[in-house]
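Lecture 7 notes. Example A: sequence first, then its structure tokens.
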Amino acid sequence: MRVPIVAGNWKMHKTVDEAVAFVNEIKDHLPDPKIQETALAAPTLDLTAMVKAAQGSPLKVAAENCYCKNSGAYTGETSPSMLWDAGIHHVILGHSERRRIFHENDQLINAKVKAALKVGLCPIVCCDETMGRLINGKRVHWVVARIIDDLKDLTPDEVKKVTIAYEPTWAIGTGQSADPEQAEEGCYLIRQTIEDMYSQDLANQMRILYGGSVNVDNIDRLMGSNDIDGVLVGTESLDPQTFLRLVNR
């Protein structure tokens, strides 16, 4: 059975003090991780303080990005080994904002996934689609191509450590969430792609999340779908009480 996960993605929000205060407010009110996992992805500067504050609680602290090298002349980047050494076990890779604003392509994301796995990190790999692709009925090809390229050359044992997050570009930060049928279709297509690439057994083991304007009004309907194993929450994860309502719905 796949354990569902509710993960917040703060993006470029919260100082270290704000992040620690947030963790202290929620850490004693989270669900049993055997039933549902809870994670927060935060800016790099916040991570070590959050790990310390979350110690002994079910909260998993995640990074929002990393580079594909462990050291070198890469000004401004954070390496996978640095994250692992800081006590981080999960990292978001390939978020649509990284693709759109920073022009990251699938080849770079694939290299980042491999580098993260090599040091022990568990990647949360985001794949998206554009509204144009959706309207023109080409959603299948777009989502499938993303997965094939992002997971290229990974072994079955490596893929088992990956979580996929399906995030339609048009739903991120717009307040316009995909309806449960659309979200389920996207996650189903991803699972079928994993089955085609590897095996049905492996596809059934993988967790696939939905992200894009998730809130307290739609989370139950989204997570009630067969192929949606959790959600990646943006804006609604910034307030501790709202986030607790989501994780303890």
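Example B, a different protein, same format:
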Amino acid sequence: MATVAIVLLAQQTLRMLPKWINPFAEETKDRSGPALLQSVRDLHRYEAASGNFQVVVDLEKDAKFLPGPLRGSRTLFIGNGSVDAYVDFSKLAGGAITVNKDRTAAAVKLPRAQLEPTNLDPKRSYVFARERGLFNRFGDFFSGNPNDQQQLYVLAGQKIQAAANESGLRNRADANTKLMLEGMLKALGFKTVTVTPAPA
């Protein structure tokens, strides 16, 4: 226990030193290569709505036979992200668009709006608070575990995606696409336009 206390005290002391004095101060250098284009695909869809979401992830890890102050951690993570809703026109079935002989009326049967995967904003997502047991602090001094941070991002994305599914985002996208097509077809000269989204 005394050794652990000395190591933690030395760690805190080194962090308080100016960078030019601290022999263990970190220096960041970006040696990344250029980004490579791997593929290009055509899009046949209309981005009709977007929702912004925030979630608080409260993740706690405990050891089965050790008390929390010795072995365990609890992290509060604030996740901010967006989910886009779109209508894929490539999914239009045969006969989905009908026009009368006089070309004065048109009817369109739309596929249901779909949701994009969550786009989590790394600039606005962060660890708000973190509690760690003594053994966890000692272990973090010697090694870091990037999977802990990745798990927080994955959980935040899953919770935001679930919230988007329960929200009215898809209904809003259906309504916006309907208004867009009605306006476009009437501008082309159709007097009567009927747009029917697929049932929810």
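Note on Example B: Helices lie at 2-16, 134-142, 146-166, 169-187. The two ends are 61 Å apart (CA to CA).
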